[in-house]
Backbone:
């Protein structure tokens, strides 16, 4: 018997079975006491459920594909499924009547799957025992993947891209670490590792070993979504922070772990390492059966909700603040004594006083630089801190050695300020000024970097702290912390109040409206009525309402938006990955350049010194070269290079989310969409994109038989397409007849649907010949043909329906264009000079009518998903960057195939997997393209500044102007210039934020703003 074993393509092999290795999310549970394993062994798969305490999950060894013969109806399907599901090693059995194939998933506890093995043969025997033929046609083996978790750490002490590269290289090489991503702007790192091979503590210790302070903020454990109906919200864990009611309560982490260890829905507990003594963080999956109040009740009265973390605004590091406050007065003292007559009053004791005063600045205030340099050097990792530490230590140690060597002469009075220029021999003022300026620059840079993330802080601030719930028993009101909300709670919101969670309105006033501008970009209040969805974080501006909470904690739209924005801000476009590579070798290159300069000057000074240095002594020449070396080390700036891209990305993603209602999933999008060197083609879907996606029946012909309408409604009810929904609602306004049995349902994209309803074959679609099954028969139905053509010419979508090959009637539907569609096309074509295409699955006549109304020249009708992908490939081959705009569901393959996939969603629907960008409204599309151009332009300006700064300043610091002009760059000035270069980059990135605020902060004419940004003249028609 010949068997093929791949599920996607058949391989001819008469002797063996090739297996397809497919990774799974989790590994089998190795805990012998696991509850789910015991249940599965004792009672079979029917009693098996997910084990949340040990994360064994629904691990499967593989799947067996069986060809089943003899099935005629859904009863046959049920018979086969029930028989196979009863086998103890089977997780699930799914039978498709149309393909007559059964997919049987085998639990990992079963033996290894092989042709002819006991489980495989038992499946075949079971199917044959209930009266059907069975033949194994494929076996798929799943490759177990070790369980992982992700630790999120806060890291302090990073100053440039070299620091990021050092941490990523060190942690990435650790055993068990899968991925590591470090965010320089936020000072955060996300590390995914294999459980058992690594841990958050090991990662933290490794980071601290190279001189940075690391702290585990929280740990994310993967949780699979429960099985449910389509559209069900995935089971995302959220975190509840609890602590003892007082230090005297006598409870700690281990007590909480013992209590909650076997609680279904609790997926993890860990002690907070954020400086909150006694705080326990509980990761759980919110549901109607489990909520925060249930967990607190189970813990007992000794526990309470932990205080909320402080706001995410800028707060100066207290240690840095203390060091700055100490360094400033000491630096002033050293500078005054070195440069004024006051120093001469100290006479021979001046060098000693300068040494004592400069010492705390060098080794206390500047300890952060030295610590990172030492630990980095131990791991062969060089950063800006090494340059600072190396330069200042050289200057300070040289000066200190000079003082100690000349101490006898100073004490005896042979060397005084009258016969010796101390400033030519000591560099104490240089080191103190450098350390102080760099500390001030670090503080200013941190503040500026915090400003780049202000949009994220603005979003976070929308989350209220309290919620008012309506008690079920007596209808009384109770105010609770928002973290204690349960799914199913009835929440009351007064006018002016913030909505604390996502939910469905159950009671609203006549004029109830919510401001969702910060979440969706929609500036006008959105009216709310009973049954409407509300978004957590929005503001009830009028009317007041009550709603039932459907999503709480990290499941809410606001939380998911924040996660999406944070993820995008942490991602790296290609240009940043390139600059990171440059930054990684920057410090060694500077050290090599410095060594070359010193050697060149040493040779030149000895062989042919410049005229200005001809009268210098050898010691004076050496000091001059020494100053050149110090200036080179101080002026070299990898920080500006490392900040050039991430600061612009952080500002742009935040501005896109809060100002334009655009959620960017990957920073690479800005680089692709903003590239003006390549032509851009925008491909627009029609239904649900240019139209509202809510078609309504406008005209019908035929349908004299009410039974036929009922069967059509039952058939269309199995499709999620908006047209099918509208037809089903028209054909059965009171609801689909539940007594009708639908079998063999098949939705053919771009064609229609077909199925059997109570033994009658139903077809519905736009092609009459396909509906009746014969092109000849269709041509004979001129009444229907002419009616369908007239409606299509009028812009309607037409669907014909047939029962057993006999046409029952035709339906015309129209979907209103979105109000902003015409403006969008005008902006794309005339303001941005882009090529615009419309690609629709509707009939060509209908698609052309809509295209003419909108002013779109390039239109393709009757396009199947494969046709859309073919168009995208063709446009790419012609040198275009393709931006595909669709509804995010039906256009998934096309969105994934495009260079940039844009899904038109809502404030609640932000997790469209196939897209790169989610926009709330088409109004945000053109501004997003302009924002991408501005962002890419800003990145290139930043990089230009970072490179040109070093290109100009390094030769100047090396003394290139000294021979002809005598101009040098003092080390102190070099340090100030280096600190300022980073501030220039960050400030330039902030200009993106000011740009979006000035143009898109209010209801302005977007076309005008776009024309201003692109420098084009208005009005080409």
Residues:
């Amino acid at each position: 018997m010949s068997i093929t074993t791949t599920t996607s393509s058949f391989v001819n092999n008469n002797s063996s079975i090739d297996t397809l290795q497919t990774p799974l999310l989790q590994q089998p549970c190795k805990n012998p006491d696991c509850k789910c394993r015991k249940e599965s062994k004792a009672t079979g798969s029917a009693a098996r459920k997910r084990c949340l305490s040990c994360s064994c999950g629904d691990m499967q060894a593989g799947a067996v594909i069986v060809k089943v013969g003899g099935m005629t109806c859904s009863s046959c399907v049920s018979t086969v499924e029930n028989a196979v599901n009863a086998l103890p090693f089977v997780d699930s059995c799914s039978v498709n009547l149309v393909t007559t194939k059964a997919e049987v998933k085998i639990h990992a506890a079963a033996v290894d799957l092989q042709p002819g093995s006991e489980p495989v043969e038992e499946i075949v025997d079971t199917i044959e025992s209930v009266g059907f033929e069975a033949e194994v046609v494929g076996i798929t083996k799943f490759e177990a993947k070790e369980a992982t978790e992700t630790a999120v750490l806060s890291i302090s002490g990073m100053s440039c891209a070299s620091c990021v590269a050092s941490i990523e290289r060190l942690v990435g090489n650790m055993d068990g670490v899968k991925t590591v991503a470090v965010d320089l702007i936020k000072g955060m790192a996300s590390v995914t590792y294999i459980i058992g091979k690594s841990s958050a503590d090991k990662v933290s210790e490794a980071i601290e070993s190279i001189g940075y302070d690391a702290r585990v903020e929280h740990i994310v454990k993967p949780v699979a979504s429960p099985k449910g109906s389509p559209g069900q919200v995935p089971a995302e864990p959220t975190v509840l922070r609890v602590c003892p009611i007082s230090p005297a309560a006598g409870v700690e982490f281990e007590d909480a772990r013992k209590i909650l260890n076997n609680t279904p829905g609790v997926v993890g507990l860990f002690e907070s390492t954020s400086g909150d003594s006694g705080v326990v963080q509980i990761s759980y999956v919110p549901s109607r059966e489990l909520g925060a109040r249930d967990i607190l009740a189970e813990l007992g009265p000794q526990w309470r909700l932990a205080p909320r973390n402080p706001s995410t605004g800028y707060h100066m590091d207290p240690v840095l603040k203390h060091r700055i406050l100490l360094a400033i007065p000491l630096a002033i003292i050293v500078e005054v004594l070195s440069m004024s007559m006051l120093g001469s009053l100290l006479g021979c004791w001046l060098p000693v006083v300068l040494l004592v005063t400069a010492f705390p600045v060098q080794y206390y205030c500047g300890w952060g630089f030295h610590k990172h340099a030492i630990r980095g050097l131990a791991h062969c990792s060089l950063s800006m801190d090494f340059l600072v530490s190396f330069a200042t230590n050289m200057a300070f140690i040289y000066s200190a050695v000079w003082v100690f060597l000349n101490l006898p002469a100073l004490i005896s009075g042979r060397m005084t300020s009258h016969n010796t220029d101390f400033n030519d021999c000591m560099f104490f003022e240089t080191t103190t000024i450098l350390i102080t300026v760099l500390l001030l620059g670090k503080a200013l840079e941190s503040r500026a970097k915090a400003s780049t993330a202000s949009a994220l802080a603005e979003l976070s601030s929308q989350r209220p702290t309290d919620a008012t719930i309506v008690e079920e028993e007596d209808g009384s009101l109770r105010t609770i912390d928002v973290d204690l909300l349960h799914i199913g709670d009835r929440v009351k919101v007064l006018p002016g109040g913030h909505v604390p969670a996502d939910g469905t309105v159950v009671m609203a006033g006549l004029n109830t409206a919510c401001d969702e501008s910060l979440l969706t970009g929609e500036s006008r209040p959105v009216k709310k009525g009973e049954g409407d969805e509300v978004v957590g974080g929005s503001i009830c501006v009028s009317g007041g309402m009550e709603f039932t909470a459907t999503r709480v904690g990290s499941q809410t739209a606001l939380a998911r938006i924040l996660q999406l924005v944070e993820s995008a801000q942490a991602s790296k476009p290609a240009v940043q990955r390139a600059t990171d590579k440059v930054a990684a070798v920057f410090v060694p290159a500077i050290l090599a350049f410095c060594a070359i300069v010193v050697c060149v000057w040493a040779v030149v000074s000895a062989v042919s010194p410049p005229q200005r240095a001809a009268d210098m002594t050898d010691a004076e020449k050496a000091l001059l070269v020494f100053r050149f070396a110090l200036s080179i080390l101080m002026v070299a700036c990898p920080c500006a290079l490392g900040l050039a891209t991430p600061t612009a990305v952080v500002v742009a993603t935040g501005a896109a989310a809060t100002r334009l209602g655009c959620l960017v999933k990957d920073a690479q999008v800005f680089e692709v969409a903003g590239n003006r060197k390549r032509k851009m083609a925008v491909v627009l879907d029609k239904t649900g994109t240019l139209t509202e996606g809510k078609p309504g029946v406008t005209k019908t012909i035929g349908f004299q038989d009410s039974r036929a309408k009922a069967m059509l409604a039952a058939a269309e009810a199995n499709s999620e397409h908006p047209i099918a929904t509208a037809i089903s609602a028209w054909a059965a306004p009171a609801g689909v007849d539940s007594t009708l049995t639908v079998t063999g349902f098949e939705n053919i994209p771009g064609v229609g649907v077909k199925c059997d309803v109570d033994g009658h074959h139903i077809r519905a679609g736009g092609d009459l010949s396909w509906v009746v099954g014969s092109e000849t028969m269709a041509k004979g139905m001129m009444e229907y043909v002419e009616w369908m053509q007239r409606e299509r010419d009028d812009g309607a979508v037409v669907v014909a329906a047939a029962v057993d090959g006999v046409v029952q009637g035709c339906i015309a539907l129209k979907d209103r264009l979105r109000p902003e569609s015409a403006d969008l096309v005008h902006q794309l074509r005339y303001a941005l000079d882009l090529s615009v295409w419309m690609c629709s699955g509707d009939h060509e006549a209908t698609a052309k009518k809509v295209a003419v109304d909108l002013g779109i020249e390039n239109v393709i009708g009757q396009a199947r998903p494969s046709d859309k992908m073919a168009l995208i490939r063709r446009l790419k081959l012609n040198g275009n960057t393709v931006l595909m705009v669709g509804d995010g569901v039906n256009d998934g393959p096309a969105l994934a195939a495009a260079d940039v996939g844009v899904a038109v969603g809502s404030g609640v629907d932000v997790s469209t997997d196939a897209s790169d960008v989610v926009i709330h409204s088409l109004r945000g599309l053109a501004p997003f393209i302009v924002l991408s151009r501005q962002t890419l332009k800003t990145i290139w300006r930043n990089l230009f500044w970072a490179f040109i700064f070093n290109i100009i300043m390094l030769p100047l610091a090396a003394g290139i102007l000294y021979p002809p002009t005598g101009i040098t760059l003092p080390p102190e000035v070099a340090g100030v210039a280096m600190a300022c270069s980073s501030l220039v980059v960050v400030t330039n990135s902030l200009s993106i934020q000011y740009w979006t605020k000035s143009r898109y902060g209010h209801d302005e004419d977007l076309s005008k703003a776009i024309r201003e940004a692109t420098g084009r003249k208005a009005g080409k028609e």
